[in-house]
Structures
1.
Amino acid sequence: MRPYPRLACGLALGAFALVAAATKMDVPADAAFDTRIKTLESELRCLVCQNQTLADSNASLAEDLRREVRDLALSGKNDSEIRAYLVARYGDFVLYDPPLKRTTWLLWIGPFALLAGGGMLWWTILRRREHAGTSTQRTTDPDAEARGRALLDDNDEPPHTL
Amino acid sequence: MIPELGHFALIVALLTALVQGILPMLGAAIREPRLMALARPAARAQFVLVALAFACLAWSFVANDFSVQNVATNSNSELPLHYRVAATWGSHEGSLLLWTLMLGGWSFAVTLFSKNLPAPMLARVISVMGLVSAGFLLFLLFTSNPFERLLPAAAEGRDLNPLLQDPGMVFHPPLLYMGYVGFSVAFSFAIAALLGGRLDATWARWSRPWTIVAWAFLTVGIALGSGWAYYTLGWGGWWFWDPVENASFMPWLTGTALIHSLAVTEKRGAFKSWTVLLAIIAFSLSLLGTFLVRSGVLTSVHAFATDPARGVFILAFLAIVIGGSLALFAYRAGKVGLGGTFALVSRASMLLANNVLLIVALASVLLGTLYPLFLDALNLGKISVGPPYFDTVFYPLMAPAAFLMGVGPLARWTRTPLPELAARLRWALGVAAATALVAPLLLGRWSLLVAFGLFLAFWIFATTVVNLRQRLLASPRRGVLGKLRANSASYYGMVLAHLGVGVFIIGVTLVKGYEVEKDVRLDVGESVALGGYDFKFVGVTPQPGPNYRALTGKVEVRKDGRLIETLAPEKRIYNASGQSMTIAAIDTGLLGDRYVSLGEPVSADATNIHGPWGVRIYLKPFVDWIWMGAFLMALGGFIAVSDRRYRLALKSRAARVFGDAVGHAGAD
Amino acid sequence: MKTVRWSIPLALFVVLIAFLWVGLGRDPREVPSPLIGKPAPSFALPQIHGDKPLSSAELRGKVWLLNVWASWCVSCRVEHPLLLQLAKAGIVPVYGLDYKDKPDDARAWLAQNGDPYTASIVDQDGRVGIDYGVYGVPETFVIDRSGIVRYKQIGPLSVDSLQEKILPLVRELQK
């Protein structure tokens, strides 16, 4: 039993990290120019209709900013340079993907810290219950105990219903 | 006169709610049967009064009474009848009245289906619901009166927001609220249990069906909202992690955790305090959602017009209700003691893991939704937290939960030897892995994300098959039908709901993995090809509607030269408000949607509608599986609740005498 | 001491309520300017009146206000009387940035409503506006002698915002 929990944790963390990374980078590097622009615009916030992405908004400022993004991309700027250009003018508000900085550290680390914490809590609770179970022997009759155990451990639907 | 009647009904309802909220609980505390007996009649009377008020408001809308402020602001005489009715809940005041109506309705339902509840328990449950109702009625009467008069009356109304003039408006809010508000029952049971000091498996048995029904309604409500956004907003998105969407999703996540936790508490008497906390949290999140939408602290497409007074009132209400509940929890929960024991590898431990994952996901969504507010409040700047954050955080948390969905039902409750479990799962693992590796190639392009998503979905399907087969084989009954009937509705509900999750995962994975879009300028008669389909733009003609003028486009969809569908995307201008709307046209299919919407005319003369237009075309593979999956989940919930044990418990009066025995004797 | 563990949800909730309470007083739609404390973006644009273009370099050495306005902007009418008063008082020069507007419309509007601007530049395609992080009209910037942006007023000017924030700042910068 010993190696399984550690193995399971390792696998879980690995899979977790893999999925997180894959979610972020699923656009292939050689995607067409238009797709790249579209992806970039869908991660920027329209400042006028603040509940739409730059890609979707019909606001006049959104059209202007889309034009700026396109011009910058055509002039050879990469994605982070384009984002930096907009952040210099409008602040972090314009990014739907919050940058990792001192003030957003809690935001980004939070979920993973909570998961680790939750995992430890889960482990502790189970450990405690396992010990509690073995330390209280209700009966000294081994047959009764075996039958009781069998009843408890069985799948919850017996042949007859209630 | 009718509005005044409605207003009066609300006032009397408030008084009734106060009676309902205070006297029965007092009766339970001092063991006075006559006070406790007030619970049922008070709750029923309160519901009737609120229903009367609601009917008065609805009547004002239907009859176009523009001397009522609410009607004048949100309706119009040209508005079709069903939208005039829906406009009743189209405003802050009206939707709050709907909330209160639902709360009354759920209280009424509790009075009907509670013959087995001991009187003190019922009294406390009804009282708690009464107090919450009283809070909402106070809020309505003091800050959000739907019956406010507009004198002199307006000649015509300002019209319902065109975005809301849609069948979605007729169904989405009521069903969503049924779920949202329905968690108040589980909440009330939890508070009643804490107050009465009685926290056992029987309590879980009573709470569980109420929770499942509320959860099922919430599932449908959220799915409808998502589907509505999909075809209304014009670019085929179905989930935006918008604060108000999150406000409905967080109770859903909690509700899902609660249903699973209740199962453990009911069957093994474990996790009692945790389950009670979840019940409190679920409804608290419903209330928090109500606050977020109506207070103006967050920007959202859904937000109602805000007023500082309202925000303060709801916040105070939140502080009292949730703060009070959590204080009660802090005081009483510790006295309950440890529940059953189980091993590391067991169904119970996996359900606990499921809870951990769901609650961490919930906390993450809450964190992301409120983080901009946190930073702003601390003067640390303004940021935005959107889909890139939520997607990155949410999917990795849900993936293990989906994986456990396959393992849990196959494990025994208290301990399962790992080799035995692994042996049962081997085949399912193989099937899922094989599908994950091969299917993406068949669908066009291999991608890790698609493979992973398909793996999870087929893992769920395969393990469900293994589970079902195992049960049928183990049954001593004769014949397939006999064996199938041996399993309870509760079991089939679970199976269906889990299958629904698998279907949902397929929809999300394939749409995200393979959707394509083309945004082009098309001359009249010009075609564009996308994904094996041919889209021909035939032109745009003006067409009048009941309360709008439309420009209706015509796009012919062909595959292999054969015409399969003619789509009619529209651009509408509504007469009363002058607002414009883009209505997409969708060719729905089991394997995917073809989605077309009009942009703007792109002639040199912008008013020339008979020239070329900008057209947006999307191909959305398997997108409808998203909502099909959600409906399967909800259906599973409803089926689970139809289980014999709940109906038996209703019918048998004698069972009341043996209350506890009923709770523990049944092996399921 | 077991109560401590069970009190955690309550404690977290109290913190949440505190934040929500503060949040009620904030406007989530307002986007603060990242230019505060940074050099004002340079521009060289044609003026509304006359042919000579105006460049930001010419404005070094004095404290000035940049008011973003347009003839199509409704809220601008609300603050216009205040701008006229400010111009008459002569405390600080106000330069206008005519944002995404037709020069003819702009001239007509000023003729009709009064011209408080020392000079008004025309930003027809909105590029300078983007450099300044303009996302709505009207907006007003306070810029000091070295060309650093010191304050941004989002939305129309009001008596309060002038008396409590802008004028004291201007007086401070002019020392």
2.
Amino acid sequence: MARYFVTRMLQAGITLWLVTVLVFVLVRLSGDPIQLLVSPEATTAEIELVRQNYGLDGPWLDQYVTFLTGALQGDFGSSIRFKEPAMELVLERLPATIKLAAAGMALTIGFGLTVGVISGLRPSGFVDRVGSMIALLGQAVPAFWLAIMLILVFSVQLGWFPTSGYGGFMHMILPAIALSHFSTAALMRLSRSAILDVTGSDYVRLAHLKGVHPFRVATRHVLRNAAIPIVTLASVQLIGMLNGAIVTETIFAWPGVGRLMIDSVNARDFPVIQAGVFVTAVMFIAGNLIVDFTYALLDPRIRY
Amino acid sequence: MAIEETILVPPRTSRNYVLMAREVFRGVPIPALLFLVLILVVGMAAPWVAPHDPRAGDLARSLLPPVWSAEGTWTYPLGTDQQGRDILSRLIAGARVSLLVGFTAVGVSGSIGLLLALVAGFYGGWADAVVGRLIDVMLALPFLLIALVLATILEPGVRTVIIVLGLTGWATYARILRGEVLRIRSQDYLKLARVGGCSTTRILFKYITPNLTNTFVVLASLQLGVTILSEATLSFLGIGVRAPEAAWGLMLSEGRQYITFAWWLVVLPGVAIVLTVLSINMLGDWLRVRLDPRLRQVG
């Protein structure tokens, strides 16, 4: 058991390190930031001075070592656009993104899981028929188009919700729907098939034969055993939410990390991109690790 | 004699082909298949079937509504956009882009994923550990972020979109096919092949790869829809296909500011995306049931 935990921790560490390498290389390939830092009339000597100040002189390896030592202390340098610490900028925006992701997850689990479980327990029933159609559609609609359609119908035509911006509960509903529709559809389909898998098994049939109350069979026998694939997918959805956050936050002018990243990429603001990707990757890797450990503790059959 | 012949060699009538076709296509979602065939034909023949030049605008006829509204005309059946370009022609040109990007990107990412899966699954040990970490890294990063950074390095356009989607989409194939390779590797016929003196290349491509075909086809069909959605997203964010070319995602981003008074600009391209991806997904589901019932949990 201890061995398993240590191995997984090490693997997670390596993954995170590879993420830093990948981000560093990609970002350096995308162009020389020095042009954005100096005025067009700057002399060569001035350019060199700025280069030194930002640690942009010297070979890539040196730059990477500097970057990594800083990163380990949470220091990603200063934003080229805002002249503020990059990490602080990302962390400032994080609550808005988490708030939106939490609302999206609530919709995914509340709607997707409920409909999926009912569909699995009552295949070809009313909920299953309607749910399957919604799930099929949900996986074919791009998030940005759904967002535009929601704005067109509910904000422009009906005037029920604000078109965009950050604010109270009403501001959150449309972005949360646009953000979560894909994972809702995926979770619906997966939980349905996970439940169907279990309901066909011998021990469930035996439980029915013994005369166990159907509700107890559903909660005690079926749901418990179908939980693992469902929990896995739900945790993987986090990355989908962060992906979607870029699009959703752009359309709804939501001041989160996703929008910060798009603006930073356009402005070639390297320190912010690096900090943002790092934070995103840490959250995802940590999330996966927690899920894996929880399984190992809950289900003695699981060993990799 | 005559009787024997009829038994041994059944007559090759057209009826047999009908029966065969029926068996192959049993349970296929017909509307999805028909729509996809239509999109394929129209997309491939785009320059010849489009009624107008998708890039030529005329401000004198800008923002004409579709034919079924009061001011619509049959010359521009689905209306025109802000620059007076024919929407129908642009949708057809967009179909071409979506299919081109979809199929090539799926081909690229599928090949990368297959090769990595073969290496990881067959050699195991170090190779497996390295590929495993690579897969983790790809799955730990939002693909859009990598796409954004890549798009700033490369020149925007169809080629860049294909490269970006090809380089970011392989992790799903690698993960699932690796498991399949592991399963196949332990089978007896592979041990026999090795005892029989087959070379590694022969074992990899003659004995293992053919057995991955079903899984691969199912995965690719499911990824095709995702890839087309991703292409639309990239073009929408302005890092994919650029104006004056036509792509569904680009049309949506251009039409967005006219949302209050020209609904067809934002509705029609979206409907095209949804119907195409929906048809592909429905056919993918059908293929999955036909070819590989074990793959239920993918997607």
